[in-house]
Structure formats: structure tokens, C-alpha cells
Amino acid sequence: QLQLHESGPRLVRPSETLSLTCAVSGGSLGSRSYYWGWIRQPPGKGLEWLGDINYGGNTDYNPSLISRLTLSVDTSKNHFSLTLRSVTGADTAVYYCARRRVMTNSGSWFDPWGQGTLVTVSS
Amino acid sequence: EVVMTQSPSTLSVSPGERVTLSCRASQTLDFNLAWYQQKPGQPPRLLIYSTSTRATGVPARFSGRGSGTEFTLTISSLQPEDFGVYHCQQYGSWPPWTFGQGTKVEI
To answer: Do A36 and A22 form a contact (C-beta atoms < 8 A)?
Structure first.
């Protein structure tokens, strides 16, 4: 059964860089059938898609974050990563990684999800 | 960007009741809509995709309908374990993939 697990610092200072890694177990990141995504949820608020990456490193980003966000993938370690630059308090959220199926003529849903990690931006 | 609007924001119900949650899109999505259930401290769990297909292991009391811009999730007979927040997500128009703000179901 595929499992995803987020890891990284829980506290980041304003204006610095937030970096998270999602480790994949029970399956391979190298599959051509899936994208690997990041979604976040500020405390008490809704979900926001950040971006996706595939096994080959092809990325899609939320236009609202494209200037600050970089996704990368390491298939040898079976993990993918997120880097968000110049963070502010508005970036405080639970960050989830999730898998998304490749579809021919549309996007797709996210399943499964990691447990999520709360990242707080504060001095 | 497609804006997803869920209603109501909160629903207080009793076990055994039939519950219908709504999700409206600002642009047509065909059938490209998913529903998730989220309990406190847990990640979202996929319930429904392609508007009406139940994910593996999802009880038959959950059903989805709709097309275009109007979608619903129905729980035919609410069980105590069904409390939580329900999110809809569109994947018919990109970028970006977008979610509704959620409907909280209180038992």
C-alpha cells in the first residue's frame, strides 16, 4: 500500500526559505502514471494546491506561487521536495503531499495523501 | 481560476438523516469533480471522483451527482463516524486545481 510522509522544519523565520520532503514508500516515484503534488491548508481554512511534479521532473505550479516555489524529484531516493522562498505568516499551514493520476484529457484527484506537517512562519 | 463554492458552510444533523452537500463551480467542469472527507488532525480522504465514482472502500451510503457547474454529495443515512469537513475539488480547468472552502458536518 502506497504511503507518503512529509518531513522538514516545523518553524521557519519570515523572509527565509521553507523546505519539505515527501518520502514515498510501498510504491515507486518512477511510474509514468502519476504526478506527485503538494497541497497546503492554513489553520481553520480550506485547501490550496501548490504544484505537481512527475518522475521526469516536469512541473506544474499554482500561478499565485510560481515566483517563489520550486519542486524537485529524486527517484533514486524515492522522494520529492518543495522549496518555498521568502515566506511570510500567510505561509503558515499544514503541508500535505499527495499522488495524482495522469489522465489524458483532464486533471485528476489526489489519492493517497500524507499525514501532513504543520509549518509555522514566525520570528 | 475556477472558484468552487460549497454550501452550506456548516450542517448540524442527527444520525440516520439524509444529508446533501452542494458544490458550485464558476466554470463548467464536465464531470471532473472529486469529494474528500477530512476529520480533525487527519489528511483528506478521497470519497468520490469523476462526480459519482466511489473510491475503494467508501461505503455505498455516499453518492455523488451533477455535471457542468452544479454538484452534490449525498449521505443517505448519516452515521456517527461521518462527522467532519467535506471538500470538493475541481480538476476540469487548470491552472490551478482548486478546492471549495469546505462544509462542516456536525453530528
So the answer is: yes
